[in-house]
Amino acid sequence: xxxxxxxxxxxxxxxxxxxxxxxxxxxxxxxxxxxxxxxxxxxxxxxxxxxxxxxxxxxxxxxxxxxxxxxxxxxxxxxxxxxxxxxxxxx
Length: 91
Known about the structure:
Elements: E1 3-10, H1 14-23, H2 25-31, E2 34-40, E3 47-54, H3 57-64, H4 67-76, E4 83-88
Antiparallel strand pairs: 1-3, 1-4, 2-3
Helix pairs in contact: 1-4
């Protein structure tokens, strides 16, 4: 069963962050990550939320705790700790 991830964080500049995010498309495809949507806060365009699906909770935990993901976020301008919610769909 796929696991839905809601990941919110603050970035320095949305355009710069989006370029970095887009650069990771190939890696996400290889890992079986499906992006369901990218959202900007109405109050602050540099507060970003990404909703994605990952193949399992175990894979999600491994990816989200990887040093590579943290380094990629820093390069893309992530400036806050992420708020991450992992959920399984029940209906």
